[in-house]
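May I ask for whichever protein you like with its backbone structure tokens?
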Amino acid sequence: MEVLYLLVPLSVVLVFFIIGGVWWAIYRGQFDDIEQEGERILKE
């Protein structure tokens, strides 16, 4: 039971890191045009 006092805060911190990473990727434009890279590979 004592391990829950460690695991629950760690999982909350992990969720915040994941949400921050997704937000950062969206903010930096990672998902603006996902079709362009596939077409670029075919054209080269």
Observations:
- The radius of gyration is 18 Å.
- The chain has one domain: 4-43.
- The helical segments are 4-27, 34-43.
- Residues 4-43 form one domain.
